[in-house]
Design a protein that fits this description.
520 residues; alpha/beta; Serine Threonine Protein Phosphatase 5, Tetratricopeptide repeat; Rossmann fold; Alpha-Beta Plaits; 3 domains; 8-stranded mixed beta sheet; 19 helices; flat
């Protein structure tokens, strides 16, 4: 790969498509006609432009992308650019050219020469070429074989299914035969603390739901009771378990597991340890301290919902929710709150009755930290030398946010009550910032002497140093909270890396360092 292409690819992956295009053109690469890598990148950038366009403009961009991919494929006869050229030709309204290129792809594959690709992708490419030629049954058989070669390559499967769905739509053909290839569903789970630990019937009913819904990924906490029952059922069926705890492991265990009968024979503590040790990931989305509190419980709960939604979007699948409520007394609960948040986003929710077998122990209620709030922080940095004009323009259109904006001398800091409001501000700010930079983070903060302090402020400031010009990056909490809401599907946040640790971070710190592009 030409070294000069790497920063362009990095910007495109970070969601800074306009800046990637500007770098591509400024480097004179638009005029290059004899380098397959440059032409493939050109095809990718034009395809990305086409995805965000509509109508004739989209078809025209797809056509130009097909030309670039086709020119790259003509040089090295690699199937990657050739199959992209074929599919994009169809999407551009040129089925005859698509068919001719698909024939070339099949001929190249039939030669048997090894290409730097996985067995799955070689067979998926063959299936795509067959589909473009109208050989739907052959494509179905070939795709089955591809999936058998890599049965758990869920992201690869999802990418293939998205492409096949576009082809079938362009052909005016039904796509229902793709459904059996869909990756398993993602599940957000929550429930109350007082379920009977010896109720094997409850565990069986949970297992039946997971089987019926083909759940392969679970996201939630691990408190005594319903959380542990559902988590055990997920592990028993071989699903991936991703835990999102509202406090450090030891503090969460003490407050949400040990407090519920450590000497009663319930065994919640041992079950907690066993499940924790088998979880695929364990993330802490905490408040101001290590101990869970009402704010951190809601923050972590919403983050878990968002992660389930992001997993489903990544795999072109569905995210569902399973709650085990106990609302016989009619009082509000975190479980009912979680169900309301989930259904407000238009997602499907399942409920399984699980009556409370015992009262909560005395002192189990948690108090919220005084003055603490859940907030979303934006940090906006203008290009060097443009602050005098950009900052007043930003302030004129953004307003004050949740509190007065702060100009640090290099960046403008704003705070909003929700990630949705921060997103709206980011959309307004983006064209004004131009090649400036934007970072966002969310979490629990507290106002001290008129200044907002806490992890979201610190994280956004640290993240800003990693943002490429013209891009917007956010932390994992911001991305997951946004994904949990109604706008989550329309603004995908894509993972692009990890935030470098602070010097003060201790080994074993579970705070999620994930960094996501905010595609505006």
């Amino acid at each position: 790969m030409t070294p000069s292409l790497l920063p362009i690819i990095a910007h495109a992956r970070a969601g800074a498509l306009d800046h990637a295009l500007r770098l591509f053109r400024d480097a004179g690469l638009d005029a290059v006609t004899d380098d397959a890598a440059v032409l493939s990148l050109k095809g990718r950038l034009l395809k990305d432009q086409g995805r965000r366009a509509e109508g004739e403009e989209r078809r025209a961009l797809y056509g130009r992308s097909a030309e670039a991919y086709g020119a790259a494929g003509a040089m090295n006869w690699a199937t990657y650019p050739l199959i992209n050229a074929a599919s994009l030709s169809l999407l551009a309204g040129e089925p005859a050219r698509a068919a001719a290129l698909a024939e070339k792809v099949l001929a190249r594959l039939d030669q048997g020469d090894a290409e730097p690709d996985t067995p799955y992708w070689r067979e998926a490419t063959r299936a795509e070429a067959e589909l473009l030629l109208g050989r739907t049954h052959e494509a179905w058989l070939t795709l089955q074989g591809a999936v058998e070669l890599a049965p758990r390559a869920w992201e690869d499967h999802a990418s293939t299914l998205r492409q096949f769905a576009l082809i079938l739509e362009a052909q005016g053909s039904p796509a229902d035969w793709l459904e059996p290839f869909r990756p398993p569903r993602a599940l957000h789970f929550a429930g109350h603390l007082g379920v009977d630990p010896h109720d094997s019937g409850l565990a069986a009913r949970v297992a039946e739901i997971l089987e019926r819904e083909n759940v392969g990924f679970g996201y939630g906490a691990l408190a005594a009771g319903a959380d542990i029952v559902i988590a055990e059922a997920l592990l028993a069926r071989g699903a991936e378990l991703h835990l999102v705890l509202p406090g450090a492991r030891a503090a969460f265990r003490a407050a949400s597991v040990e407090a519920f009968g450590p000497e009663s024979g319930d065994g919640w503590g041992m079950r907690f340890d066993a499940v924790l040790g088998r979880a695929e990931t364990v993330a802490v989305v905490a408040g101001l301290g290590e101990r869970p509190d009402p704010l951190s419980l809601k923050l972590a709960g919403r983050a878990a919902m968002g992660r389930a939604a992001m997993q489903a979007r990544l795999l072109a699948g569905e995210a569902i929710q399973l709650t085990l409520p106990d609302e016989a007394d009619g009082s509000p609960s975190l479980t009912s709150w979680a169900r309301e948040v989930w259904t407000a986003a238009g997602r499907r929710a399942l409920t399984l009755a699980a009556p409370r077998s015992r009262a909560l122990p005395a002192g189990a209620a948690l108090d919220a930290p005084e003055g603490a709030v859940i907030t979303a922080v934006l940090v906006l940095a203008p290009e060097a030398g443009r602050a005098d004009t950009v900052v007043p323009a930003l302030l004129a259109v953004l307003g004050a946010g949740d509190r007065d904006p702060v100009w640090t001398g290099q960046a403008l800091l704003l705070a909003y009550p929700t990630c949705e409001q921060a997103l709206a501000a980011a959309r307004i700010a983006s064209p004004i910032l131009g090649a400036g930079r934007m970072a966002g983070a969310a979490g629990v903060a507290r106002e001290v002497l008129g200044l907002l302090m806490g992890r979201p402020v610190e994280t956004a400031a640290r993240l800003l140093a990693s943002v490429p010009p013209g891009a917007a990056l956010v932390d994992a909490v911001f991305a997951s909270l946004l994904a949990a809401g109604p706008e989550g599907e329309s603004v995908p946040c894509e993972p692009v890396g990890e935030l470098p640790p602070r010097d003060a971070d201790q080994p074993g710190d579970d705070i999620d360092p994930g960094v996501y592009s905010l595609n505006l």
